[in-house]
Amino acid sequence: MAKYQRILLKLSGEVMAGRSAFGIDGERVAALALEIAEVVRAGVQIGLVVGGGNFIRGVTASRDLDRVTADHMGMLATVMNALALQDRFERMNVPARVMSAIHMSQVCEPYTVRRALRHLEKGRVVIFAGGTSNPFFSTDTGAALRALEMHAEVLAKATRVDGVFDKDPLTHPDAVMFKQVSPQEVLARGLQVMDATAVAMCRDHHLPVIVFNLNVPGNIMRMTMGESIGTLIC
User: Fold this and answer.
1) 5: which residues sit within 8 A by CB, 6+ positions away?
2) 192 phi and psi angles, rounded to 5 deg
3) Whether the Cβ atoms of residue 156 and residue 12 lie closer than 8 Å to each other
4) What is the domain partition of the chain in residue ranges?
5) Distance CA 228, CA 158 (A)
6) Is it the case that residue 21 has pLDDT exceeding 90?
7) I need a labelling partner for 65 at 20 to 30 A (CA). Which of 96, 108, 120, 222 fits?
8) Would residue 103 be called left, alpha or beta, if left means φ above 0 and alpha means ψ between -120 and 50 degrees?
9) In terms of DSSP H, where are the helices of the chain?
């Protein structure tokens, strides 16, 4: 039996690109959707927040653009990724809905809390797009916000590494991974796992966060079942 019955899963936009640096890799998206579908078929309710970094990152783009404009472009990128995921789920006969914080009714549903909750209760995967609709807020913050609004039991952040480390393990072979760490320590040490606003929101509302490696097949199911993988922030 799954440990968690309702999960908010945060995915980076980069995962959608697979081995490429840009765009959407159909094979990678299909494999990702298949893993999530297995969890859904086990009776777990899943909400997804996906970034847009495979197309544009607001912070990076703001070097050449006004920050507000860059962030709005990043929000639109999340909608493209969300639609790609929805299409893949529907092909697998897994009902899914894209709900955007930016209204674009010809493309996807506008986000409302009550409608999103109803979709989850009916067993649909809900893909939250458009961030918070506000500039200067990352998709990490959007994920924390949606997790709290959906009464999720855990915010699961999928990354390229095994968990939270004391320094970047991709550039420091001697980096040490935490099995459990408090939000206060994440903030005090400046651990680069989520932005400070998202960490503070989870801390203030007692929402646990699990950081795990998405590149290990089966890790989404393992995390859902409560296996000790990654890092628990609580």
Assistant:
1) 43, 44, 45, 153
2) -85, 80
3) no
4) 6-233
5) 15
6) no
7) 108
8) beta
9) 26-41, 58-61, 67-91, 113-121, 139-149, 183-189, 196-204, 219-225
pTM assigned to the model: 0.95
Q: From 207, 228, 70, select the one nearest 146 (Cα to Cα).
A: 207
Task: Calculate mean pLDDT across residues 13-18.
Answer: 92
Mention every residue, 6+ apart, whose C-beta is less than 8 A from residue 38: 220, 221
CA max distance for the chain: 50
The answer to whether residues 47 and 126 touch, using CB atoms and an 8 Å cutoff, is yes
Q: Classify burial at 126, counting beta carbons within 10 Å of its beta carbon; exposed 0-12, middle 13-18, buried 19 or more.
A: buried
CA angle, corner 83, sides to 82 and 86, nearest 5?
Answer: 90
Q: Note whether 133 and 102 are within 8 A (CB).
A: yes
Question: Which class would CATH give 6-233?
Answer: alpha beta
The 3-class secondary structure across 104-145, one letter per residue, is CCCCCEECCHHHHHHHHHCCCEEEEECCCCCCCCCHHHHHHH
Q: Which of 212, 56, 233, 38 is nearest to 131 (CA)?
A: 56
Percent of the chain with pLDDT over 70: 100
